[in-house]
Amino acid sequence: MNSLVNYFKSIDFFGATFNQNIDKKQQSFKSVFGGIMTLFIFSASLAYAVYVFYKWQTNQYSPKITTFVNTSSFELLDLDYDIIKLSYSEYKAGLIDPFEEKVLIPLLIYTENFEYGTPTVLTLSNQTSYYGNKYLIPKMQLGFSYVNGNLMTTSEMYVQIVKCTPDLLEEGESCASEETTKKFFNQPLNYIILQVKGKQLNSKDGSVQTSIQEFYIQIEETTCYTFNIFLQSNFYEVNDSLLFGQSKQNEFINGALIQSQSNSAQYCYQAYGNITYASFYIAMKGDQIKTIYEYPSAGDLLANIGSIVSVLFMARFMIFFLNDYYLNEKIINDLIAFYYPQFHQVRFKRNWRRQITQVKFRNQKIDVDKFKSFYEKVKSKMEQKLTFENLIYEISRIYILIRANMTREEIKRSHLVGLRLDYLKEIPKNLTSECEGDIAQHENDVRLLNDDDIALLSLYENKVALKTMIFEEKSQSTFFDINRVKL
């Protein structure tokens, strides 16, 4: 059992070491300057940490952005909004809007596996353009499948701008008159505006932003324009969690590529079966751009804070150096005062180079050069006394002096001597007999160890005792009387 306990003790990673105090009040030397610098460093570090987290909270840190080409199944693609809008460019008042006047009819055709579906007439929406006329908004319906391992758009869309014919209208509607039609084609700058609305993520805060591309399509009576519109998409992956959490994923249309071609009206009539002035083929590009936003995590923020804090804490080396210097000076001066008690009454000033410029003893100026000579000599001796080797040597000399006055047996008996606890105090037997008087009892009490012996040589106890001790002013010739110093 003891071996197991000892084993657990041996593997204790958190063992505490004993650190001896410099004096009764402090275990390590501390200075006012060090305290001010400590307060400054910790305050600056805390302020910078708050500043860093504030910038992170208010999205002021730019994310790390990675972009590459990606192939997607478009499962997350958002098509549920008005991606494509068409309107007539009624740039001035008095122009004939071909869609409102039924000069032209917009047809919407969906394909399935490359086969045309039934055309439907696009009706004007309630949304108005900046010219004041209404938009045509086809509903997006695209399908995707893999063909020979390649992702392709197998459900596509066509929007065709054709000449109005009665069979394309509902009951009660009629096409524009021949005069209105002729007047329309005689108008200058007949344009249809195609808008493609895309979405992007704002890299600053991850919010969704919209953008619009506009394409102008000229309408001429003798020409048919065909446009292949390949919608581009972007896949966004956002990592914005502070510690843990899954990334957010979004997929948006972000623009379009257009291939245009002009053909004769006869060509389009043969191809589509109607007098067609413009045809829009709408499909998706098979590849897309994948963008990854990696916002700073807790580790990045702490690393940022740590780098600045490390720079601030470089000042601690200067503080350590100064505290070490002042600690060494304090110990040397205290040690000098042990041998020269009056040294506590010496006050000296130093300049910025730490040179002694003025010395006072009991408020009286004394010779600086003479004091410096004394101080350097004594300081050198005290520095030697503080070395570990010298301390061991002096202890060994003390033993020699004790051994010179005591036998080995007497020294060995010192290991058996100690202070008794008050409540267990036993009166030694055979020390006195009943017939012995008060004088003998007093002699034994003087020799008996008690609590006063603990601090008999204590520096701090004797500092207090010296203030209250009264010395008799009579002539004596003991060692202590000869060398006593009056403070």
Automatic annotation (TrEMBL):
Transmembrane segments: 32-54, 301-322
Record key words, sorted: Membrane, Transmembrane, Transmembrane helix
GO molecular function: zinc ion binding
Cross-referenced PANTHER family: CYSTEINE AND HISTIDINE-RICH DOMAIN CHORD -CONTAINING PROTEIN, CYSTEINE AND HISTIDINE-RICH DOMAIN-CONTAINING PROTEIN 1
Record-given protein name: Transmembrane protein
Source organism of this protein record: Paramecium octaurelia
Organism taxonomic ancestry: Eukaryota, Sar, Alveolata, Ciliophora, Intramacronucleata
